[in-house]
TrEMBL record:
<protein>
    <submittedName>
        <fullName>NAD(P)H-binding protein</fullName>
    </submittedName>
</protein>
<dbReference type="InterPro" id="IPR051604">
    <property type="entry name" value="Ergot_Alk_Oxidoreductase"/>
</dbReference>
<dbReference type="Pfam" id="PF13460">
    <property type="entry name" value="NAD_binding_10"/>
</dbReference>
<dbReference type="InterPro" id="IPR016040">
    <property type="entry name" value="NAD(P)-bd_dom"/>
</dbReference>
<feature type="domain" description="NAD(P)-binding">
    <location>
        <begin position="6"/>
        <end position="180"/>
    </location>
</feature>
<dbReference type="InterPro" id="IPR036291">
    <property type="entry name" value="NAD(P)-bd_dom_sf"/>
</dbReference>
Length: 281
């Protein structure tokens, strides 16, 4: 039995879909009605990290678990690790972020990600850490302005980022979960095949849509105002700090991990844009 958390999200949902056809699968979800993955051996358990009883139910009989957490203020990874250890889980595959390897990344989000990694590494269980760059799906936030105005608005349009397709992250996660012993004690850096800027992504997205799009640079203050409208101030400031590191080139490095593990090149942003063009049309 494999347990997947975060199955209503971007990566967890892809992991669950990859596993559902061929493996006994359990999904832990706070809102089970939002789980779209189904199969003859798929079991959905309602629960959350703060509810130990639901964790115990979800982890019973589980050999390996895919762990996704997103809260800044909660000890969700610690809670999960404690329950997994008590349930006899053998292997944790943890979704983290590549920023944890950058000493200059001292923002709130990255600091918490480092703490979460430590909880997993010190759990006494076998572990695998997945450290991706930014998801290509983050650009879905441009969909409304693309549809309505033909414009992409973003901060630092010339700052490169080796963004990664969540499907590639999910494929690596599925390998780690289903190949016992092959990935234990490993931390995998995951990126796309090339670093691209927001301005370049705009052009690639326009090509996928068959119409030109215009890129509009957001200054720091407009970007801060937009982020504060969506997030608490500490999170908004952490994201702005991340953008500054990207502007300095800290996110331009490309990792060969996807190709090494899957046997094929990582998907490009052009591929992702073609596959997701309907979301912007």
């Amino acid at each position: 039995m494999i347990l997947v958390t975060g199955a209503t999200g971007t990566v967890g949902g892809e992991v669950a879909r990859l596993l559902a056809a061929d493996h006994p699968l359990r999904i832990l979800a706070r809102r089970p009605e939002r789980v779209t993955v189904a199969g003859p051996a798929v079991d959905v358990v309602a629960g959350e990290y703060a509810d130990r009883d639901s964790l115990d139910r979800a982890l019973k009989g589980v050999r390996a678990a895919f762990l996704v957490t997103g809260s800044i203020g909660e000890r969700d990874d610690v809670r999960f690790v404690e329950a997994a250890r008590a349930a006899g889980v053998r292997h944790l595959v943890k979704l983290s972020a590549l920023a944890v390897t950058d000493p200059a990344a001292d923002d709130l989000i990255t600091a918490r990600q480092r703490e979460n990694e430590t909880a997993v590494r010190e759990s006494g269980l076998a572990w695998t850490l997945l450290r991706p760059r930014a998801f290509m799906t983050n650009t879905l936030s441009w969909a409304r302005s693309v549809r309505e105005d033909g414009v992409v608005r973003a901060l630092y349009g010339d700052a490169p980022n080796a963004t990664v397709d969540p499907r590639d992250i999910a494929e690596v996660a599925a390998l780690a979960l289903t190949e016992p012993g092959a990935h234990e004690g490993r931390a995998y850096a995951l990126s796309g095949p090339a670093a691209v800027t927001a301005a370049e992504q705009t052009a690639l997205l326009g090509a996928a849509l068959g119409r030109p799009l215009r890129f509009e640079e957001l200054g720091p203050e407009r970007a801060r105002a937009a982020l504060l409208a969506r997030y608490p101030q500490p999170v908004a400031e952490a994201l702005l700090h991340s953008a500054e590191r990207q502007r300095a080139g800290a996110k331009a490095g490309v990792s060969p991990t996807v190709q090494e593990l899957t046997g094929r090149p990582a998907r490009s942003y052009a591929e992702w844009a073609r596959d997701n063009a309907a979301a912007f049309a």
